[in-house]
Write a structure and sequence with these properties.
The protein is an alpha+beta fold. The protein folds into two domains: 13-83, no CATH class; 102-154, no CATH class. It has helices spanning 35-48, 63-83; strands at residues 13-16, 21-26, 29-34, 102-106, 112-119, 127-130, 138-141, 149-154. The strands form two sheets. Strands 7-6-5-4-8 form a five-stranded antiparallel sheet, with no helix packed on it. Helix 1 (35-48) runs parallel beside helix 2 (63-83). The N and C termini lie far apart (45 Å).
């Protein structure tokens, strides 16, 4: 993995410019977060808090950009806990209100996909692709993912 340094306990975040992501040391493994995702989430939380001064101003793919992301996530979590609200910025607009329903989505390339719409927990939830009613979880649906159409199969 091309990076400025290898993540360690003392330096848990590194920049991988080839794959355009931050590698974050967590326990015995790593988590990865894309450069664009950090900027989108940083700016989404700034909008949600009505604090445009919190928008990302650091250069894309820098440790300062990641630090700004972390500060905004902490500010968002604090606000959510204090006000007892959840940030809707990572929820897909076409799936809002369809939690628990079985849907068929059509992608821009014409392919279709069926899943039950779930919603994650936490202060900034996202929608989930739940395989069936016996499933305990599912893969996230990006709020920026494009769907040509969403058809409710069953509520």
């Amino acid at each position: 993995m091309p990076a400025t340094t290898v993540p360690t306990k003392d330096n848990p975040v590194t920049v991988n410019t080839e794959q355009e992501l931050f590698a974050i040391k967590e326990g015995n493994g790593y988590s990865c977060l894309g450069f664009d995702v950090t900027i989108q989430r940083t700016n989404a939380v700034a909008v949600w808090l009505n604090r445009l001064d919190l928008r990302n101003t650091a250069e894309r793919g820098t440790l300062e950009s990641y630090a700004q992301y972390r500060r905004n996530m902490a500010e968002g979590a604090r606000h959510a806990a204090e006000k007892r609200v959840r940030c809707p910025m990572e929820l897909h607009p076409k799936l809002m209100g369809l939690e628990g329903a079985r849907v068929m989505v059509t992608h821009p390339d014409g392919t279709t996909e069926r899943f039950n719409v779930g919603k994650s927990t936490g202060w900034m939830p996202c929608h989930l692709r739940v395989h069936n009613t016996r499933s305990m979880g599912g893969a996230p649906v990006s709020a920026r993912e494009e769907f040509t159409s969403v058809t409710v199969i069953r509520r």
